[in-house]
Structure formats: structure tokens, C-alpha cells
Amino acid sequence: MTPNDLSGRTAVVTGGASGIGRATAVALAEAGARVFIGDVQLRTENEERFQTLSIEQSVCDVTDLGQLRSLIDGAAESTGRLDILVNNAGVVLVGQADEIGESEWDRCLDTNLKAVFFGVKFALPHMRRSGGGAIVNTASNAGLLPRAHDPVYSISKQAVVGLTRSLALCHSKDRIRINCVCPGPVSETEIMDSDLRSQADPSAAAERVIAASPLAAALGRMVSPEEVAAAVVYLAGDAAMMVTGTAIAIDGGKSLGVPPAMT
Q1: How many CA atoms lie within 13 A of 173 on its CB side?
Q2: Of 42, 80, 112, 125, whose CB has the highest number of CB atoms within 10 Å?
Q3: Active site residue 234
Q4: Where in the chain does DSSP place strands (E)?
């Protein structure tokens, strides 16, 4: 058995129908896990691939705690255990403090933070019965480096990093490891695609995004969803058995600081 062999384990992925979530669901299934995904909008283009990998999907709005609990409980009841939870569902919110309304604040924080906390809460009893488990939360490089254009989103992701560390400390005694990944800029995601579509010149906007991350600029591309998924599989597997409370930046060096000028 290899360190990333997840055979016999049950995994739940929120926001699993597209982008990082879809890549993560596929990677976990390919590693041997039985995967259950939830998403507010399922996609017909996933059906053949998911069926081949025995990935089960259901509609789940993570801001509806009843739906979130049903997704997690249903996976555990179906297989008799829960080993892996990936709290991946998220939304972006761009705007300054004087432009953001209460409903926008609530949607962003409820999706990006509250659902993460309650996802962990709902997973805990199942993981304890399974003898432990691994939880991976999707934060962002905005959780490591404050950003001027989306302060509320940045707040939510910085809180996810802090929450991850606190809960990791709380539940090590249960043999439950809790970590987070901090991706960005990631191509082929709803957040990135919608942002680029909103720009007057999407190609130029993409070039600016790439240029803002030193390694992305050097390689001439954004991070791929599969690269983030590979980190999640690592954190979920036995190779990371002594890793908890970490925040892994997968952002082409964007959160390191101001990069040198390209020559």
C-alpha cells in the first residue's frame, strides 16, 4: 500500500461539481476512496466520469446546514464510515467596505467560513467512530496575504486559516488531522472564469493575474485545479499522518511578497 492509497476510505467534497472540487473528487476516487460530492449546481458533463469512478453526487447548498449535514451523514451511513472531508465550497466577493451590503457579507461568510465550521462539526462524530480522519479546508492565498480589492473575501479566508489551526489543536486527541490549502490564481474555476469574463479584455486580464505570481509568471500559466487536488490527496493520506494545522500555499509564490522584476 502506498502512502496515498485511500482504498476503503470514504470522502466528502463540497463544491465538488467544478474547478478545484471536481479535480479533488476525481483525484480522491483515483486514489481508491469512495467519494460523495455536493454542489449547489450539478453538471451533466460530470456524469460519465463520476459514474466510472463511482462518485456519488447530490445537490447541496452549504449555507443550508440541513443540506450540509445530510450530505455528510448520508455518505457515512452509506459506507459505515467517514474518513475524509474536503470543505471546498466557496464564493468570491469583490468590493470595498462602503460598497458591501449586509446580505453580501452574510453570503460570503456563511459560505466560506460558517459552512466550514459546521462541516467539521457534522463530520466529527463519524470520524471518531472510524478511529480518526483527515479534514482539508480550501482557503486561499487571500488567507495569507491581505488584498485590497476583496477585503470581505480576504477576511473569510484568513478566518478559515485560523479556524483550521484552532480545530487541528482541538481534535488531535481524536486522531483527526485538519489542514487547509491556500490556492490562487487557479485556472478553470468558476471564480477565475467569471472574473476574467467580466473584464473588458479577458486575455490581458489573465496575463496580469499570471504576472502577479512570480512562479506563475516564470512558467507562463496559472495553477491548475489538479495541482491543488494533488495537495489535498497528500493531506488526506497516510504520508501526512503527522501533519495538522498547516496552510499550504499553492499560488505560484504570490503570497511571498513583492516579486523581483522579470528580466
Answers
A1: 4
A2: 112
A3: no
A4: 10-14, 34-39, 56-59, 84-87, 133-138, 176-183, 247-250
Mean pLDDT in the chain?
94
Percent of the chain clearing pLDDT 90 (strictly above): 82
Give the separation between CA 199 and CA 192, rounded to whole angstroms.
11
Lookup result for grid cell 472531508: 85
Instruction: Give per-residue pLDDT as tens, 8-57.
Output: 999 999 999 999 999 999 999 999 999 999 999 999 999 999 999 999 99
Q: What are the residue ranges spanned by the domains of the chain?
A: 10-186+224-253
224 is written with which cell numbers? 491548475
- Cβ contact 179:245 at 8 Å: yes
- pLDDT tens figures, 48-104: 999 999 999 999 999 999 999 999 999 999 999 999 999 999 999 999 999 999 999
* Model pLDDT, residue 262: 57
* Of 36, 118, 153, 234, catalytic: 153
Q: Could you say which DSSP state residue 111 is in?
A: I
Q: How far apart are CA 101 and CA 226, in angstroms?
A: 35
CATH H-level superfamily of 10-186+224-253: NAD(P)-binding Rossmann-like Domain (3.40.50.720)
Helix (H, G, I), strand (E, B) or coil at 72: helix
